[in-house]
Amino acid sequence: MKMLKHLVSKHLVAWSLALLGVTALAGTALAAPADATPTPRARCTSVACVQKVGDALIDERLAALDKLAGAAQNHKALTDQQRQTILSDVQTNKDGLNALKSKLDAETDIKAAVADVKNIYVQFRIYAVVIPRDAGEILLFHEQNVIARLVAGNDKITDAIQKDKDAGKDVTHLLALQSDYNAKLADATAKTNDAQGLIPSLVPANYPGTDATLKTYRSDLKTAHDDIVAAAKDLHQIVQILQQDLGSSSS
Amino acid sequence: MPQLHRLRLRQKRVSAQLFALYVLRWMRSRRGTWRKKKQKVVSELMKKHSSKRNRFWLPILVLALGVTLALGGCARTGPASSGGSVPSGQSTSGSGQTGTGQTGSGNASSDINALQQLDQQTQNDVNTLNNDQNNANQNPGNDQETQP
Predict the structure, then answer these.
(1) Buried b (16+ CB within 10 A) or exposed e, A104-141
(2) Which residue of A has its CA nearest to B135?
(3) Does residue A14 register a pLDDT over 80?
(4) What are the backbone angles phi and psi of residue A131, rounded to the nearest 5°?
(5) Dihedral angle computed from the Cα positions of residues A5, A11, A13 and A15, in that order, rounded to the nearest 10 degrees
(6) Positive or negative, the Cα torsion across B57, B59, B65, B68?
(7) Rounded to whole angstroms, how far apart are CA atoms A104 and B102?
(8) pLDDT over 70 for what percent of chain A?
(9) Would the pTM count as exceeding 0.90?
(10) Beta-carbon count within 10 A of A151 CB
């Protein structure tokens, strides 16, 4: 009797687990096709429908622009002027989108409403051009500020290395690090200048050519970033060596 | 009669005793004031003496302090102002270095402090630059035209 009870309970557990597994598999199988094949968009047949779609597209872009403005506003490494450059561009685009929204909402003809919706893309290119360009500009400004500070710090490095040399220390490695530091900063400066030179061509009118320009723009910014990181490592090593050589005698 | 004489004598003796007692008490009271006077005079003398002593030592102390500070300042600024004198126990690596080689002012520790600050600030900047780069490389949305 006891044996039978034990067997029944064992089977019950096994069947429950199997059922659970089958349910889960069925759920995944049913859910998968829905994700894989998106439902086709239904075409609008009324002005109100076009307006609704257009308003939603504009609202999405306005929210993205607000996010960008927030990033610029809270960025402590930017100067007021740099911050203002981003904020005023965001505001210009927001004003334009809001004007387009008002126009769209006032349309009574479906063709005119569809043309307005098209202008959300054609005139603004918020996702394809404006936000990538301005987000890159925040990075560019930050990089320029860091480069300027590091270049200004080179005199202090020269002084400290000279003092280390006067103290009778071998400064060969320090000089090599300083040379690399300056080379990296020179390259970073060149790359940021290149990136800055591309900004005027990053406008909605140049789309889709802006895709290739953006690629170069981002590549220049990345190289400048990598150069800054390398220069920062050189600086860190220089400071550590100088601390070892001069830190104890000076403190 | 002799009794009267005895009484007068006794009266005289009592008054003499009383006078003596009075004189004694007066002297005692005077002794207290003399002591106070003496203490006052002594304290005044001491004060005068000590202030005189202060008046003498204070300028000397100030002078000594000034001389010490001046000497200390000269010793500290000496190497920098002279264009790179060598720390004690070490020799110059080249004759051309001393005097003309040094471009900076201030001591080595101030240079290192400034470089440490720059290093720290740059490390912080590198972190925020990484964030900025991630933001710049993000795809914010799709701008592919779709007809409503």
Answers:
(1) bbebeebeebbebbebbbeebbbbbbbbbbbbbbbbbb
(2) A135
(3) no
(4) -70, -45
(5) -150
(6) negative
(7) 70
(8) 82
(9) no
(10) 16
Q: How far apart are CA A251 and CA B108, in angstroms?
A: 9
User: Model ipTM?
Assistant: 0.76
pLDDT at position B86: 29
CA distance A234 to chain B (A): 10
Dihedral through CA A102, CA A104, CA A105, CA A108, nearest 10? Answer: 130
Q: How much is the average pLDDT of A113-131?
A: 97
Q: Residue A11 is encoded by which pair of tokens?
A: 């089977």
Q: E strand or H helix at A36, and its extent?
A: helix A2-36
pLDDT above 80 (res A17): no
Structure token digits, residue A67: 């996010």
Give the pLDDT band of residue B126 (cuts 50, 70, 90): very high
- Candidates A14, A127, A12, A142; CA nearest to A62 is A127
Q: What is the pLDDT of residues A218-240, one digit of tens each?
A: 999 999 999 999 999 999 999 99
CA pair distance A223, B12, nearest whole angstrom: 129
Q: Does B78 touch chain A (CB under 8 A)?
A: no
Q: Which tens digit of pLDDT belongs to each residue from B35-69?
A: 777 788 777 766 666 555 566 666 677 777 766 76
Residue A111: list chain B partners with CB under 8 A: none
Q: Which residues of B touch A181 (CB under 8 A)?
A: none
Q: Which of B86, B82, B76 is nearest to B110 (CA)?
A: B76
The pLDDT value recorded for residue B80 is 33
Any CB–CB contact under 8 A between A45 and chain B?
no
Read off the tokens for A205: 């009118």
Distance CA B147, CA A43 (A): 8
Specify whether the CB–CB gap between B136 and A218 falls below 8 A: yes
Distance in angstroms (rounded) separating the CA atoms of residues B66 and B63:
5
